[in-house]
Amino acid sequence: GRLAELQRRLSERRPESGGQPGKPRPGFVEDFETSLREAMDDDLNTPRAVAALFDLVRAANSWLEETGGSDGDAILEVLDSLHRNAEEVLGLRFGTPAHPDGDLRGLLSVLSRARSALRRNRLFGDADEMRDGLGSLGYRVDDLPDGESRILPS
User: Fold this and answer.
1) Exposed (0-12), middle (13-18) or buried (19+): which is 90, by Cβ within 10 Å?
2) What is the pTM of this model?
3) Spatial separation of the C-alpha atoms in residues 13 and 8, rounded to whole Å
C-alpha cells in the first residue's frame, strides 16, 4: 500500500551517516505526532489515529515531490517517526507478514468495524475523513444498506 511505498521511498533516500543533532524537524512530523497523541488520549481513538497516519503519508509524499527528499536529516526524522509511531503505537508492521492476505483482511475488517461504529455514533465527519484517507491509500469504502461499511482495494 501507500504506507509501504512511502517507507520505501524514504529508505531509498536515507543518508549513510546519522543526522545533525538540533536540526529542526519537518512541521508535518510534529503535526502527525500531535494528532496521534491527541487521538490516543481520546480513549484510544483508533480511527482518528489512522487518519493522522494518512495525513502523514500525504504530507510526506508531497514534501518528497516538492524537495526531492534531499534533506537527509529530515528523511531520518520522518522514518523515525513513522516507525516509532506506526509500528510501536499503532502496531503496524513494515516487514513482510507471514500471511499477508490474512493480515490485510484482518486489518480491513477492523477498519470496517471502526468506520461502521463512527457512522452509528453519528460521527460523520470522522467517518468521511477515514473514507477519504483510505481512498488516498488505494481503497474504496462501500456503505451498505444495513449501516455497515465494507473496505476493498480500488
Assistant:
1) middle
2) 0.57
3) 9
Q: How far is CA 112 from CA 36, 100, 106, 118, 149, in A?
A: 20, 18, 10, 10, 5
Q: Which of 56, 64, 90 is nearest to 11 (CA)?
A: 64
In three state form, how does the secondary structure of the chain look?
A: CHHHHHHHHHHHCCCCCCCCCCCCCCHHHHHHHHHHHHHHHCCCCHHHHHHHHHHHHHHHHHHHHHHCCCCHHHHHHHHHHHHHHHHHHCCCCCCCCCCHHHHHHHHHHHHHHHHHHHHHCCCHHHHHHHHHHHHHCCEEEEECCCCCEEEEEC
Q: Residue 121: what residue type? A: N
How far is the C-alpha of 104 from the C-alpha of 126, rounded, in Å?
22
Q: pLDDT digits over 58-88, tens only?
A: 999 999 999 888 888 888 888 888 888 887 7
87: which 3 cell numbers?
A: 509500528
Provide the pairing of β-strand 139-143 with 149-153.
antiparallel
